[in-house]
Amino acid sequence: MARDHGRVDGGFDVRAAYAAHGAELYRFALRQLDDGGAAQDVVQEVFLRAWRAADGYDPQLSGVRTWLFAIARNVVVDEARRFAVRPWQRTLTEGPGADVPGVVGIDEAVVDAWVVEEALGRIGEDHRSAIVQTHLRGRPHAEVAAELGIPVGTLRSRVFYGMRALRLAMEEMGVEP
């Protein structure tokens, strides 16, 4: 696959993606890590990984923004783990009270929601409905089954196979479930 001037055959343009999403990815990483230097490193790593994996990117599976934020989430988690193991490697821009960053924050929850929403759109309607009603809305299986006019066992089967399909969709999107 030929790479030229930031563009990979198949349509992924690294420069255009950076121009469109780089600042937003930086803000996401900064909120997660509370360290400007580390946030810059995260953005660089995101686009490096995206460039390396561009030939495997399929716009039919997810949008560029969702794909980049999924990569960013993984890089932020890696950075937070690195800080937890080697806290002395934090930059000197930190002030007092700047402990190891929290891995799960509001911004990561938003990115996770985008990724799950994108993956849910990739599975069948029956499976999606079963997962949304039971897992996301927390409704009892018996209530949902009665509403759909199906046996509880059928609903449980739809949830089980729907979760498998959801995991597969997320793996295809390059997300670590």
TrEMBL record:
It comes from the Bacteria. It holds the Pfam family Sigma70_r4. Residues 18-82, 119-167 form the RNA polymerase sigma-70 region domain. Gene3D superfamilies: 1.10.1740.10, Winged helix-like DNA-binding domain superfamily/Winged helix DNA-binding domain. Keywords: DNA-binding, Sigma factor, Transcription, Transcription regulation. Belongs to the sigma-70 factor family. ECF subfamily. This is RNA polymerase sigma factor. It comes from Geodermatophilus africanus. The lineage of its organism: Bacteria, Bacillati, Actinomycetota, Actinomycetes, Geodermatophilales.
